[in-house]
Amino acid sequence: MNQQPFLSFPSPAKLNLFLHIIGRMENGYHQLETVFQFLDYHDTLELSVTTDKAITLLTPIPGVENDDNLIVKAARLLQQHTQCQQGVDIKLKKLLPMGGGLGGGSSNAATILLALNALWKTQLSTEELAELGIKLGADVPIFIHGFSAFAQGIGEQLTPATPKTYWYLVSKPNCSISTQSVFTAKDLTRDTPAIRYSDKNIENYHNDCQTWVIKHYPEVAKLLAWLIEYAPSQMTGTGACIFSRFSSKQDACYVQSLLPSGIESFVAEGLNQSPLHAAVAAVNDN
Question: How far from 258 is each of 123, 203, 231, CA to CA, in Å?
């Protein structure tokens, strides 16, 4: 079996700078309004193209069957859709916490679709990759497009946006929250009025999921109350991670040093362009 050298691709985190739930569709999906922004903090996927059709994840995630992993699902989906005869060996270096609302699984899937489209030379457009991605998860298209955006629908209708970029302290309490458990909750707010989005008003918006989570997860409520004493702080996505806004890395790192013990955390800068696309462009240029 002929094998290519491993090439590295970043798989960045995202923040939901706010998250409004404005309704629910007949199929059970929720109508959302949110702004996505990327973080300069990422998992790393290393890919080596093979001449057989095997999709092999060399670094399984504990507790997740490979067949259920979005990395493997994304590779198989692209392979089947394009009838590609090549395969790939995959290594994952995991930094993003699972169940944190940072989009790690969706980001991994998008990285696989974009990177393998370049490496396998399957030549799908960004729009075609995003249509494939939505089959894997509502957050996959934003990572494929790679620009900050005001998102509507289930998160797939994207309007480019340029929210202010801050330094963020991202903190995760000692719990993981299932997206499904939040979106199936009977007492979740689902009637927030639709907005006319403006980058200037972003600090007036809120996260409907946060209201539900702090009622049901005291660990999140306690950490959020602590962080708000130091900086504007809010939950991202369906949680459990909380992001706190700072104007400098130094200030973010200082508050990080004060965090209660047992809290996972990192400091990263907000980005309005995903770092993944430069890595994919380098492959396409070769």
Answer: 49, 25, 13
Q: Which of 14, 73, 89, 208 is catalytic?
A: 14
Q: Where are the beta strands (DSSP E) in 112-227?
A: 149-152, 157-160, 167-172
Given a contact cutoff of 8 angstroms between Cβ atoms, the answer to whether 103 and 143 are in contact is yes
CA 251-255-256 angle, to 5 degrees, is 110
Cβ-based neighbours of 220, under 8 Å, separated by 6 or more: 173, 175, 177, 213, 214, 235, 239, 240, 242
40 is catalytic: no
14 is catalytic: yes
d(CA 151, CA 139): 10
In this structure, are strands 149-152 and 157-160 parallel, antiparallel, or unpaired? Answer: antiparallel
Catalytic residue among 43, 89, 139, 208: 139
Torsion sign over Cα 91, 269, 101, 200:
negative
Set out the domains of the chain in order of their start, with CATH numbers. 7-161+277-285 (3.30.230.10), 167-271 (3.30.70.890)
Query: Is 16 in contact with 101 (CB distance < 8 Å)?
Result: yes
For 113-150, write each residue's pLDDT tens digit: 999 999 999 999 999 999 999 999 999 999 999 999 99
* The pLDDT value given to residue 1: 53
Q: Are the CB atoms for 143 and 45 separated by under 8 Å? A: no
pTM of this prediction exceeds 0.90: yes
**pLDDT tens per residue, range 20-31:** 999 998 888 899
| Residue 15 confidence (pLDDT) | 98
Beta bridge partner(s), residue 235: 242
**Dihedral sign, CA of 271, 168, 15, 263?**
positive
* Proportion of the chain in helix, strand, coil states, percent, rounded to 5: 35, 30, 35
Q: Which amino acid is at 168?
A: Y
